[in-house]
Amino acid sequence: MLVNPALPVVEEENAAWIRRFLNGAYRDPDALEESTRQSSGLWGCYAAPQVPVSAQILITEWATLLFAFDDLVDTDVVSERMVAHLEHMMATNELSAHRSPMDAGIIDLWSRTCAALPAGLLTRLRDAARIYISSVREENTYRNSYRIPEPEHLIAIRRDSVALEFFLTLIEFGMGLTVTEAERKRTNRALLHMQEHVVMSNDLNSFRREVIRGDDMNLINALCAHEKLTLQEGVDRLCRMIEKAEESFVETRIDLLRSPHSPSIPPYLDALAHIMSGNHHWGFICPRYHGRNHIWNGLKSGNLTLDPLQTVLLPEPDRQ
User: Fold this and answer.
1) How many C-beta atoms surround the C-beta of residue 115 within 10 A?
2) Average pLDDT over all residues of the chain
3) I need a labelling partner for 111 at 20 to 30 A (CA). Which of 11, 93, 150, 205 fits?
4) Rounded CA gap, 227 and 253, in Å?
5) Residues 84-100: tens digit of each pLDDT
């Protein structure tokens, strides 16, 4: 697992950007500072460790913005205005009319993104954003009606609502890759395995946070509800699914590299692998999921306590 060496610079830039452009999104100044301390957008430094600092800052600030969307999803009217305005700006390039608390951040990021990306990638980014917005609305439909989709359907929704196509487009830009439509179709199976791994890893690590927020849209809940599992059985089942997604990705990657391929394919597959491993690592270390001042102790299994203030992971006691 790699991390972008520019992380300290990106962290400082991101904190300044949050205070400047997202101050209207948080009613409580303490909530704004908590968002700054969490540095959730630094996910990008782990998911895209090989892009230059200018591209990394763009990726990190987009991640910060979309995490803020997620933070405010329960304020449904405000959240819908923010999503609708992002959708409108991407379609029209209108950079005025502040209609939601997050418009300053939306305007700044979209104008900088338009200036940076070539036309072809910008079109792909717009398409990916439309898919992301549609999936967020579908997920909210379930959430607002207090229903939990079946696990397979929730994974399908989440593949889009975590905006991986959107971020992959930004990563390709940062890496200077040119992946044709034919190459994308050829590698689509690897992309799907990566997306599934990210979705499942996120739901495993975010379960504590979502329980506290009263949000049932989590694969552990879906597995327990639809497969009649206990909580421990649901966690065990999800862990096996994560392992299977990783194995399937590795097998698919090997098959693709063994067959004739263009020069763009290996770095593109590397980018997918970095997203998987970086996201998984970030899930262990981030305060967003595990509580303020969380420091991961390096364990990946053991006795887990989902305390309201902190995730507590301890080694299993020796069994004599």
Assistant:
1) 8
2) 90
3) 11
4) 31
5) 777 777 777 775 554 66
What are 22-41's pLDDT values in tens digits? 887 777 788 888 888 888 99
Q: What is the DSSP string of 227-260?
A: HT--HHHHHHHHHHHHHHHHHHHHHHHHHHHHS-
> Is the CB of residue 32 less than 8 Å from the CB of residue 18?
yes
* 104 and 153 assigned to the same domain: no
Number of domains in the chain: 2
Structure tokens at 149: 């989709």
With respect to residue 262, please indicate whether it lies within any of the assigned structural domains. yes
- pLDDT of 97: 53
Least confident of 7-21, 78-92, 161-175, 208-222: 78-92
Round to whole Å and give the CA distance between 167 and 162: 9
Q: Are residues 75 and 196 in the same domain?
A: no
Query: pLDDT at position 199, please?
Result: 97
Task: For residue 105, give every residue at least 6 positions away whose Cβ sits within 8 Å of its Cβ, in sequence order, or none.
Answer: 17, 21, 22, 25, 61, 65, 68
The amino acid sitting at 139 is E
Please tell me whether residues 78 and 167 are part of one structural domain: no
Please check whether residues 244 and 109 belong to one and the same domain. Answer: no
Q: Are residues 153 and 278 in the same domain?
A: yes
Cα(19)–Cα(39) distance, integer angstroms:
12
